[in-house]
Write a structure and sequence with these properties.
The complex is a heterodimer of chains A (367) and B (317).
Chain A: H1 2-8, H2 12-40, H3 45-57, H4 60-85, H5 93-110, H6 116-145, H7 149-169, H8 193-196, H9 208-225, H10 227-237, H11 239-244, H12 249-276, H13 287-297, H14 302-326, H15 332-345, H16 347-366
Helix pairs in contact in A: 2-15, 2-16, 3-4, 3-14, 4-9, 4-12, 4-13, 4-14, 5-6, 5-7, 5-12, 5-13, 6-7, 6-12, 9-10, 9-14, 10-12, 13-14, 13-15, 15-16
Chain B: H1 2-5, H2 8-33, H3 41-59, H4 62-86, H5 91-114, H6 138-151, H7 156-174, H8 176-186, H9 188-193, H10 198-225, H11 236-246, H12 251-272, H13 275-278, H14 282-300
Classes of the chains: A mainly alpha (367), B mainly alpha (317).
Chain lengths: 367, 317
Amino acid sequence: MPELVRVQSSSRLATVLRELAVPLVSVAIAAIIGSVIMLIAGFDPLAAYAAMFKGAFGSGRQIGETMLRSTPLMFTGLAVAYGFRAGLFNIGAEGQLFMGGLSAAWLGIVLAGMPRPFNIILMLVAGAAIGAAWAFVPALLKAKVGAHEVITTMMFTYIGRYIVSWLVTGPLKAEGQIPQTNRLPVESTLPKMHEILPFLTPSRVHLGFVVAVVLAFFIWWVLKYTSLGYESRAVGYNPWASETGGISVSATTIKALCISGALAGLAGVTEVMGVHMRLFDQFSAGFGFTGIAVALLAKNNPIGVIAAAILFGGLSAGGGTMQLEADVPQKVILIIQALIIFLVAAEQIARWIIGRTGRRGAAENAG
Amino acid sequence: MLADIFTPDLFASAIRMATPLALAAIGGTICERSGIVNIALEGMMLFGAFMGVIGTMYTGSPWLGALIAMLSGMGLALVHAFASITLRTDQVVSGTAINILSLGLTGFLMEVIIGHPGTTDPVARLMPVFSINGPTQGVLGSVWRWVDTIVFSYTPIVYLAIIIAVVGQWALFNTRWGLRLRALGEHPRAADTVGISVIRGRYSAVIVSGALGGLAGANLTLEQVGSFTENMTNGRGFIALAANIFGRWTPAGSYLASLLFGFADALQIKLQLFRDVIRIPSQFFLMLPYVLTVIVLAGVVGRAVAPAAVGKPYEKA
């Protein structure tokens, strides 16, 4: 039956739809299980989802907020996806993000008084570089002694967080009681979207969103059309065959994990330059970890990452409204996220459901 | 000052700190010996820690709380087993999903049951097993002080962890159960051919590891802290996996490696008391166990060999 379908509808659209079926059904099942959990806990899931939707897409400002929250997730989602394509699980995107944020918070002050475009470009490049550097030791250990990157990048996340915690309470601390760095001068920040395009509703969303979307297309191009991307995918698909085919697995592993780290570092840079204008302990709401869910939902496709990041950005933006209006703890979003990861990874569940409904539909048509 | 740092309670504290790591690491050993990677130990520990507190709160007994913690770890393990054995999902991804699920579930249930985020109220704890009145005077007194602190000062799960390490070590290499378990992780096809059920064997190994992860959580909340704080495991599940590797996938090795990490943890806590003398920011002490994990992995992994079939889903021929 599935074979038949494949022959009949070989159009491009059908291919895309087939690719989308599993993620879409997975999100739907996760939402249903989420509502069962809410029901058991005594909440009204319909009210919760309605409030969530309103909070995410209800007005121009809310849409801006969703875009804002999807921005770091695009970067970390791309980071994790690029790693996965090369057979690497960069679970430590959070740590690389922290280091990116740190570099922006420091550099932004140093560059005070310089022209804004210069600062923006330099801070983005520097943040990517330090993100890559933070992934380099785990990459080297993976390539040379086979230390699993899941453990090492995780450990580097804790180390990075403590470094940031030390710097914002000590050497880089601004005047006052709160442990945070000095506010960046305006020339070291990313402009808000409505400053560039005045017809947009004023909201917090900044230029980082555009950078992330452009970068997603760039990474898609790198993976598909460059030898670097080809080597990464080849090593991810079959390291032994790649080695035999003349690709250095260890060099490709190091490159891929560093690229992943660079992408995650950018998430930290844009959060500091576009949202908080400074650095403090809690500046990331676990974006590195949510990036894993984003990448998996996107099936590691960079273009898919854009859509998945907007979905999770919407969940996050709507979560606050949900807690406020339907009184449901925001943590339920984490549960839904975990369920989505599960269902996308164990795609047989979604396929089984698609198969059943598809078959029923076909039977009804025949009858 | 050295005499102030290297006191008997430093070593006792090292053994206490090692306990949750060791239990989870042995859980990781058993799981990986069967051929299944268990990144989810972090989540199982966290869920166990939470359910241990909730269980104690409702039953009034920390013993029942610990039992509930184990059952909760087993519940999450069953999900991991179903995903990675039956559905043949990527085991690392399934484990990550469980970690996030556990973070969300404990946070959500905390607000539903306790009514606020953050930390729960303290609950009844498991008390030290022994209480012996030894000599207090003279040389004998100071010798007894060391012996009492290092040998007789612990709560039940601390002793239980040592027993599990010893018995587990013996069983893995001397019983039919151990031989079968190792066969599953080294060459499942061969095990299958001689009539060992790969599916059942792996399910039970994953579930045992969940029980140990849950027990590790119970040790954290019901013996060490006395209450639950969101995300309190703080990466211990990952450190435990490193300890399992450092311990060469053996229960005794896992315990000894955990002791090293436990000692690093105990030392950093102790050194923080001397902050004014040493003048190093506390964050650097807090980093110690994580840095140590990286160093350990950098140094040993090349020489430590994982079970051959670990991480690979098994499809019956």
